[in-house]
Amino acid sequence: MKIWNFKGDFPMKKITSYIFILLALFLIFSCSDESVDDDYNFDYDYYYDYDDNESDETIKYYTLTLYSNDGNNNNYQYDLDENKTYNITKDLFKRPGYTLSGWATSRNGNVVYSNGANIRLSKNLTLYAIWSPATKDGNGWEYVGEMPYCMSSHNVIVKDGKFIITVDDIVLTSKDGIAWTEFLFNNKDYLSVSHSIHNLNGRIYNVGGLTKTGDYYEISNLVRFTDEGTNFYRYAPVTGLTGGIWYHTGATFNNALWVFGGQTKEDNLNNTVNNNVWKSTNGYAWTKQSVTGLKARCGHKAVVYNDKIYITGGWNGDELNDVIVSTNGTTWQTLMSKAPWSARNDHSLVANADGMWLIGGNDGEFLNDVWFSSDGTNWELVDANPPFEERAGHACTIKDGYLYIFGGCNTDWDNPNNLSDVWRKYIGIPEPELPSEYVLKISNDSIYPINTIYIKESSTSSWGANKISSSLSVGSSLEFVLKPTIYDIKVYDTKGRYKTVSNISLNSDYIQKITNSSWIEPVVVVPKYSYTVKNNYDYEISEVYYKDSGSTSWILISSDIASGSSKSLGALDSGKIYELKIISKKKITTSTSSRNNRGRPATTGKTSTVMYSDIYCYVTNKLDSNKTITVSNSSAWSTTNK
Asked: Is residue 292 a contact partner of residue 332, using CB atoms and an 8 Å limit?
């Protein structure tokens, strides 16, 4: 049992055919000698009282005008035979949230004619609809309103307090199910129906379905997504979902998208179904899973409840009414092979904190029964005859504690009579909807200008790819819209200081103040360079000392540099001004004369004495690279020891 048409547009070919048929009937009967009494009212079903002896020439016609009286000023006018009795249909106008009580002769008048009354005119008559607030039926169902289109095989999801309905190239959004806003898909070449819809971390995904190409629908593996719930964009390419997928079901489970069963292109050609299970964490890369315990099927429904996935019903050549469950999406257990509700497909299945709700579908006939289960095994018939029509291919969801039903189909799929009505039933205190996004506001209350901000999920170890801002002056703030989870923040100031704030649980809008406390000074890595002393002096250099230019203490760094050789003094911090003290020995020779005992020079001549004296060479230099200091005989040697 497959769904083929999805919006309630009446085919032009059928309209043309009906016009020709009506013209032919008119010509046939207008040529007949006998007059024909055409029963007529505002819903094509009326009562009349006609005098056969009365001539057509004496018939008078009066105008009946009916106003909707609902602020829209809709009206109908009918020219009616004075000799006939007409029935005012009950369903001529609909007003969301109201019931038509009857008809009055003024906008605020009392009811003169009841809803569905029979009237005969003796003069022109204007009537106004009188409305009363809608009351719930005995089981709490209430009519909400109408969607802009009649539709089936559509899907609905709630995001940021709004319904989002997708079908064909249409996206409808509404806060209340009464007032609707319509959007078109971003690319009309890629339209789909009988798809699945998912919300993963605030992004809405449409997966697979029948995609319209020209005048035909084809089974596709297209995935479209939206973040704001209006404009949808196509992922290209999509890997996996081989052969396309439609008439499947899906769920968001364990932070991933899942789709189950349905048909591929090959299945459709062979009139078969499958039990394929595909999984994706990003919407465009899909992997096929190994599965046990899941029968092939299509037209089934899945829902996540109590951290498990439940699948109900469907079709695989026979209608199914089993209930199966999985804790991981791949291993399935049959809870019930025959549930108390009849075997069916194209039903709906939704869940809240209390349990699961199964509504309508098709078991060979269209259904509108409503069932509830808190465990998947025990099912209760909640409503056997709710006030809405039987239907299949409808969409359901839960919002603000209400179970909502949207549209569907209740006639032959090949010539569907699609519905546009919206109904709801209060089923309990709503669980607060987890918004898809919150605002994280970072306020710089410190004295340090911030020039880099990193934000990462706490479960992620690396900061590297999480730089999201580069400037936040003192006293200013920035807002970041993020999905609800736990975050870490790291900020850097212009001097390299940094501060980390960990485990920010973003389950509501949140302000994180950056204060003066807990900043960590940067670890400065100073490059090191070396002096090399090259000794071009005639004598050996015995010692080399160094000190910072502002220091008074000399530090021995090297010794014993022979004449004609060089020696590196080792690594020192760069960027500083150093003084070097280089010490060498200078050879000093002294002569003395020998004298006799009479004080006269000795005849033996002079004697020589060799002595060495410390001399010093001082060099002041900024060490900003490796440098060579050369000393020679011409250097500024001094006997002064500083």
From this structure: yes
| Number of independent structural domains in the chain | 4
Q: How far apart are CA 240 and CA 207, in angstroms?
A: 12
Q: In whole angstroms, what is the distance from residue 336 CA to residue 320 CA?
A: 11
Q: CATH code at 444? A: 2.60.40.2890
In three state form, how does the secondary structure of 156-173 look?
EEEECCEEEEEEECEEEE
- Whether this prediction's pTM lies above 0.90 is answered by no
Together in a domain, 368 and 340: yes
- Domain CATH for 87: 2.60.40.4270
Q: 3-state secondary structure string, 236-248?
A: CCCECCCCCCECC
27 falls within a domain: no
Alpha-helix runs per DSSP H in 277-322: none
Residue pLDDT, tens place only, 211-226: 776 565 677 788 887 8
In terms of domains, do 421 and 442 share one?
no
Nearest of 151, 160, 243, 169 to residue 206 by alpha carbon: 169
Q: Are 167 and 407 in contact (CB under 8 A)?
A: no
CA–CA separation, 5 and 419 (whole Å): 12
Q: Which amino acid is at 488?
A: D
- The span from the CA of 48 to the CA of 302, in Å, is 53
Please state, in angstroms and rounded to a whole number, the distance separating the CA atoms of residues 348 and 223: 22
Torsion sign over Cα 353, 354, 360, 361: positive
Q: Which residues pair with residue 610 across a beta bridge?
A: 589
Domain assignment present for 419: yes
Q: Nearest 10 degrees: CA dihedral of 138, 405, 264, 209? A: 170
Q: Which residues contact 441 (CB under 8 A, 6 or more apart)?
A: 477, 478, 479, 480, 509, 510, 511, 512
* Nearest CA among 284, 279, 211, 274 for reference residue 248: 274
CA distances from 538 to 561, 564, 583, 633 (A): 11, 8, 13, 7
Give the least confident one: 306-320, 360-374, 545-559.
545-559
Of 375, 398, 426, which residue sits at a domain end?
Answer: 426
The strand ranges marked E within 281-401 are: 287-288, 301-305, 308-315, 319-326, 332-336, 348-351, 356-362, 366-373, 379-383, 395-399
Instruction: Give me the count of residues in the chain.
Output: 642
pLDDT digits (tens, 9 = 90+) for 276-324: 999 999 998 999 999 999 999 999 999 999 999 999 999 999 999 999 9
**Tokens found for residue 585:** 């020995």
Give the CB-side neighbour count of residue 527, counting CA atoms within 13 A: 7
483 and 585 housed in the same domain: no
pLDDT in tens, 599-612: 455 555 555 665 66
Peptide bond before residue 449 is cis, with ω within 30 degrees of 0: no
Are both 607 and 509 inside the same structural domain?
no
Cα(508)–Cα(488) distance, rounded to whole angstroms?
16
Residue where a domain terminates, one of 491, 514, 537: 514
Q: Containing domain of residue 177, as a range?
A: 141-426
Farthest CA pair distance, the chain: 193
Tell me if 265 is assigned to some domain.
yes
In a shared domain, residues 127 and 156 = no
Q: Which tokens hold the place of 487?
A: 């975050």
CB atoms within 10 A of CB 472: 22
Report the alpha-carbon distance of residue 100 to residue 91 in Å, rounded. 9
